[in-house]
Amino acid sequence: MSTEHINENMDRIVSNIDTNPDMDARIDRALEVRKQMGIYGEGGQMEHGFYGAAQAQGILEWCFGLAWGGPLLDLKTRELIVITALVSQQLDGEVEWHVRSGLNLGLTREEIIAALTHLTVYCGFPKANHGIRAAKRAFDKIDKENGVEPPAPYTGAKKAAAEAAGDRLMAHVDPNPDAKARIENALKTRQKMGIYGKGGQADDGLYKIAPHYTQALLEYGWGMVWSDPVLDMKTREIICLAAFAAQQLVDEAEWHVRSSLNHGLTRDEIIEVFIQCSPYIGFPKTNDMLRAAKRSFDRLDEENT
Fold first, then answer.
1. Which of 4, 192, 261, 277 is the most exposed place for a label (fewest CB within 10 A)?
2. Angle value at C-alpha 191, between 185 and 196, nearest 5 degrees
3. Does this model's pTM top 0.85?
4. Which residues contact 287 (CB under 8 A, 6 or more apart)?
5. Who contacts 131 (Cβ-Cβ below 8 Å, separation ≥6)?
6. Which of 241, 231, 248, 302 is nearest to 266 (CA)?
7. Distance separating alpha carbons of residues 79 and 278, to the nearest angstrom
8. pLDDT (tens digit per residue) in 166-189
9. CA nearest 172: which of 117, 223, 212, 124?
């Protein structure tokens, strides 16, 4: 047993923090971020009157001064992380406002929809559907403010196919998909991720007992969603990490930390993804994600020694 003296009164967090932070710089950074988001001034989110002094200070300092003010990720990426965390928790009102913020920060409508489609795989269709409806409300309101006419409803062959099937979904789908191309795309994507082959995730039997699910997982998840070129692989990994954080999916996060490194994220950037989530998911979930990241880093270091 070690005879090293332990100071029972010492709080171990103290050695890891700045005990004399520059509060002026923190507040200035927070206000600049909020200004660029463009949803908090006149004509933006209304003051609802529910802020207490501590809550308002925490929102400004923690959320915008510290989390949003980190040095490694740009604001566009940070907003994509926030939208993901909100959709994963079905916080639709917040999603609508942050979609507007995302557009102000440089995200395109196509990128936002691609991100929400990506989430169908990681938080399910219902939550993603709610997120897409919230995004559409934001788009429609922006168009109305700018005098833009809404797009015409579907017509022609698409409309005829939907009416013939008695299902409006048929107006938006490919009735003759190329399954072989999907599977080829899926396998290429999984190879790039680098966690599904030898030395990666083991086959624990779930693929054998759920063949229809396995087929959907491969064709839809990797063959269609991950293979969509609107978002690159690095961005998709960021979305995955944020979705896992919001839902406290620790095992998935641990594996996708490895995959994220294979797609160009650095260890520090991965940590910033989880920190960016923290005001929107809380400290306990964030703590679990940071521990998962550390386990993944430690295992990689062990493998490389």
1. 4
2. 120
3. yes
4. none
5. 83, 86, 87, 90, 92, 95, 116, 119
6. 241
7. 13
8. 988 888 888 899 999 999 999 999
9. 117
